[in-house]
């Protein structure tokens, strides 16, 4: 957990130093500081958890970045320094975080640390040089481009920081996490950057009137992102319910689909899958047994891994047909259909689902030595059925301490409830 | 379907003729040509991207044009987009003409209003908050012209009766156009600032992202609805005799809920409750569901587990709200003799009482293995007979009133009565489904 401590310590040090400097020198441009503080606080209040590791407050992020890059107020050069930027972001962030801390949602320290460090980075890059008049030659359009470049750099740093924090919290591999963060920059991240730049420029031109005028369009962005996240969450719940149909029908034991999905996701992350691929993997793992609904006589205990290959393939094809009807992404149906094929012909997701499903079925009632025996059996089966790299990855995932492997939600019954927040964004 | 009535063609031609005089004073105006060209190109690019992703029009560029340019030059901005962007449905020519003429007229009016109130000077002089007033007036004019022309087209094409053609159009468009107007104003101000058009372009990025996310939202929602349908289809596959039953119960529940004056959100939840009320039958062995002939007490007990199975399945779907309670309790009876919990009277959730009536009504009016379909009047009489003991009289009364008013014409996608004519086996006391 050293990198986590390091990041938190750096953020705390920055915050304390800036607070001390600001207390010593006093606030400049109080009106501007207050307006931006309110904007950031409101943005933080409307923050929500997009997933286990990501949190989204586009308005707060854009507000803090634009305050860090503010060079003038209605044509008059701005007086505030980098320390004041960090102080305002800190105070507004703390005020905005009160309800989140109160309800115990999300990793507020991580979020604040990220916010302070990114705003501090942007401010340190811009404010001292701006005060010395270095940018005086960069008038007009060049100034807008300069701000954009700085914002791009800042977001890159922010992405690395976020990936490092998520890596420390979850122990998922750093590379795919960073790739996922960088992909997020293309979507909502670019909107945040553009808004930060526009607000800084617009305040420089027309003063504080720019904030309310331009907040409304950004709220529109935030609203649509929120609705998108909500409908995605609902969709996941529906898929998980569909997956539970097999458990309720008595085809598979309670919780099987959820356990396979959680373990498949962990293996998928370990193998470096990201974003949409993980979503497909999760949905396919949840629904991998759905073909058994179409069987007249249920398979004993739903254990398909022990059946003859032809029978396994028939059930997989039945499942694929059901999944195609559900209107889920066609890639999910392909994974479900191909889960019983020999691994050289399978897509990666199907290899993962097959190996994890077999592992889950073999360890089910096998007692304390079950996992070892199951892994040994899977390794023996790598000649044709189970992909060696997937089995090795499964062994790596299983070797991790349990708390890091599988975040178990606080309240859960035996059936396959969706584990919250495994899928980040698409 | 593609045939456009001649009236609509004449209407489009008239609007196009109206738009021509807006462009006539062009040679005499001192418009900044490069700005006009740039805005028109931007508009074309945005239109192209947005239409491909979602459909609809992208207004910030148009409104920025209205705030920056003289009226006749501003009216030029939407033309290239209309002439170059692809048209999905024939006939191509009237559609292109309409897409060019309608926004041209609207932008011309907006620019005229904006200019008359001194808005262009306010934009150049960064005279805030005064600049908001002409901009607001221009947005209002833009909206008025758009909706007036739109309503006219709807009436001329015979899509709606002329009296209702304009109803609700203005209130629906005003809010989104106002937000786009603010973005357009910010664009115009930055365009005229020392930072120039580069800064103005940045305003478009958040708007485009918002459109993209919104399109994603719609796609995801459609997929979600397909999945809900799949849940219902899964039940229909198992229990072939009741095909279409779920959808019809949904419709009957909506009828009752509307009659009781519930708000739209609750009506929607009740539709889901009706559609999904038997989803727990997925957990009942197919052999029992399809059994011809009397059930043993043991078999009946297994079938009576289906409300609990259903509740267990949908428990995790949070948007269903009180529909989950309706699924659990739709076999409770008012006198307390129902299952699973034997609740009585007001202890039964309101939505469950609605679904119970709708369920029994459809069970009686459709053909089952154990009974032929009865006429609606007979079913209503039976419901009224059991009101108070089995059903809530308020719900029965609401259904009867609704049936009187609109009749019963269930439209079901998969409605093909398949019946085996097995031995008559009546459910206890009424035709309530098992």
Automatic annotation (TrEMBL), chain A:
Domain of life, per lineage: Bacteria
SUPFAM superfamilies on file: HD-domain/PDEase-like (SSF109604)
Signal peptide: none
UniProt keyword Transmembrane present: yes
Keyword Transmembrane helix: yes
Transmembrane segments: 82-104, 116-138, 144-165, 185-211
Keywords assigned: Membrane, Transmembrane, Transmembrane helix
InterPro entries referenced in this protein's UniProt entry, alphabetically: Cyclic_di-GMP/3'3'-cGAMP_PDE (IPR052020), HD/PDEase_dom (IPR003607)
Name assigned to this protein: Metal-dependent phosphohydrolase
Species assigned in the record: Streptomyces actinomycinicus
UniProt lineage: Bacteria, Bacillati, Actinomycetota, Actinomycetes, Kitasatosporales
TrEMBL record, chain B:
Transmembrane segments: 9-26, 32-50, 57-77, 128-149, 169-191, 197-215
Span of domain HD: 242-364
Residue ranges of every copy of the HD-GYP domain listed in the record: 220-415
Keywords noted in UniProt: Membrane, Transmembrane, Transmembrane helix
UniProt-listed Pfam families: HD_5 (PF13487)
Source organism superkingdom: Bacteria
Residue segments, region Disordered: 412-434
NCBIfam families: HDIG (TIGR00277)
Protein name: HD-GYP domain-containing protein
Lineage of the organism: Bacteria, Bacillati, Actinomycetota, Actinomycetes, Kitasatosporales
């Amino acid at each position: 957990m050293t990198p986590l401590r390091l990041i938190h310590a750096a953020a705390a040090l920055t915050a304390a130093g800036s607070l001390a400097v600001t207390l010593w020198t006093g606030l400049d441009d109080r009106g501007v500081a207050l307006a931006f503080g309110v904007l950031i606080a409101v943005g933080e209040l409307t923050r929500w958890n997009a997933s286990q590791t990501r949190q989204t407050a586009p308005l707060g992020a854009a507000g803090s970045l634009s305050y860090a890059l503010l060079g003038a107020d209605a044509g008059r050069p701005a007086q505030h320094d980098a320390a004041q930027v960090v102080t305002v972001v800190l105070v507004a962030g703390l005020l905005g975080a009160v309800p989140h801390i109160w309800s115990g949602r999300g990793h507020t320290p991580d979020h604040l640390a990220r916010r302070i460090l990114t705003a501090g980075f942007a401010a340190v890059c811009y404010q001292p040089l701006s005060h010395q008049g270095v940018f005086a030659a960069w008038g007009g359009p060049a100034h807008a481009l300069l701000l954009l470049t700085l914002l791009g750099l800042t977001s890159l740093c922010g992405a690395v920081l976020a990936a490092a924090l998520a890596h420390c919290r979850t122990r998922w591999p750093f590379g795919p996490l960073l790739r996922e963060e960088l992909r997020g920059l293309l979507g909502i991240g670019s909107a945040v950057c553009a808004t930060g730049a526009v607000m800084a420029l617009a305040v420089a031109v027309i003063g504080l009137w720019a904030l309310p005028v331009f907040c409304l369009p950004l709220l529109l962005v935030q609203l649509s992102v929120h609705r998108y996240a909500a409908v995605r969450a609902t969709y996941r719940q529906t898929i998980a319910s569909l997956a539970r149909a097999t458990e309720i029908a008595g085809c598979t034991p309670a919780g099987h689909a959820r356990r396979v999905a959680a373990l498949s996701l962990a293996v998928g992350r370990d193998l470096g899958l990201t974003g949409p691929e993980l979503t497909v993997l999760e949905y396919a793992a949840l629904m991998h047994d759905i073909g058994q609904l179409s069987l007249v006589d249920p398979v004993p205990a739903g254990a398909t891994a022990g059946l003859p290959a032809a029978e396994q393939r028939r059930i997989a094809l039945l499942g694929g047909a059901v999944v195609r009807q559900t209107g889920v992404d066609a890639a999910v149906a392909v994974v479900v259909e191909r889960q019983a094929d020999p691994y050289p012909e399978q897509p990666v997701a199907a290899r993962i689902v097959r190996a994890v499903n077999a592992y889950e079925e073999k360890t089910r009632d096998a007692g304390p030595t079950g996992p070892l025996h199951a892994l040994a059996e899977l390794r023996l089966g790598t000649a044709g059925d189970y992909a060696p790299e997937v089995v090795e990855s499964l062994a790596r995932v299983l070797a991790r301490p349990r708390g890091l492997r599988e975040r178990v939600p606080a309240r859960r019954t035996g059936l396959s409830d969706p584990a919250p927040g495994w899928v980040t964004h698409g | 379907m593609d045939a456009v009535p001649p009236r609509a063609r004449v209407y489009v031609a008239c609007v196009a003729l109206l738009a021509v005089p807006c462009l006539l004073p062009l040679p005499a105006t001192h418009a900044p040509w490069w700005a006009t060209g740039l805005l028109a190109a931007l508009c074309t690019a945005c239109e192209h991207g947005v239409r491909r992703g979602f459909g609809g029009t992208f207004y910030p560029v148009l409104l920025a044009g209205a705030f920056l340019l003289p009226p006749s030059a501003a009216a030029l901005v939407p033309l290239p987009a209309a002439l170059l962007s692809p048209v999905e449905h024939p006939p191509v020519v009237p559609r292109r003409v309409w897409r060019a003429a309608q926004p041209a007229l609207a932008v011309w009016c907006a620019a005229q209003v904006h200019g008359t109130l001194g808005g262009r000077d306010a934009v150049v002089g960064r005279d805030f908050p005064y600049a908001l007033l002409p901009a607001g007036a221009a947005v209002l004019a833009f909206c008025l012209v758009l909706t007036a022309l739109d309503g006219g087209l709807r009436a001329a094409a015979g899509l709606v009766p002329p009296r209702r053609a304009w109803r609700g159009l203005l209130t629906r468009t005003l809010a989104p156009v106002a937000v786009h107007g603010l973005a357009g104003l910010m664009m115009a101000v930055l365009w005229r600032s020392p930072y120039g058009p580069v800064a103005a372009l940045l305003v478009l990025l958040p708007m485009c992202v918002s459109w993209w996310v919104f399109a994603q939202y719609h796609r995801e929602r459609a997929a979600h609805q397909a999945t809900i349908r799949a849940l219902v289809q899964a039940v229909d596959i198992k229990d072939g005799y009741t095909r279409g039953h779920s959808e019809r119960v949904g419709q009957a529940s909506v009828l009752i809920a509307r009659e009781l004056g519930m708000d739209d959100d609750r009506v929607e939840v009740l539709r889901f409750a009706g559609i999904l009320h038997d989803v727990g039958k997925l957990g009942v062995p197919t052999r029992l569901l399809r059994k011809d002939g009397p059930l043993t007490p043991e078999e009946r007990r297994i079938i009576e587990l289906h409300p609990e199975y259903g509740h267990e399945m949908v428990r995790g779907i949070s948007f269903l709200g009180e529909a989950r309670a309706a699924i659990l309790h739709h076999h409770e009876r008012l006198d307390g003799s129902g299952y699973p919990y034997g609740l009585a009277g007001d202890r039964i959730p309101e939505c469950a009482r609605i679904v119970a009536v709708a369920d029994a009504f459809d069970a009686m009016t459709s053909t089952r293995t154990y009974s032929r379909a009865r006429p609606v009047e007979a079913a209503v009489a039976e419901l009224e007979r059991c009101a108070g003991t089995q059903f809530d009289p308020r719900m029965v009364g609401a259904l009867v009133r609704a049936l009187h008013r609109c009749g019963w014409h269930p439209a079901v996608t998969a409605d093909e009565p398949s019946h085996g004519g097995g031995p008559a086996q009546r459910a206890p006391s009424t035709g309530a489904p098992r």
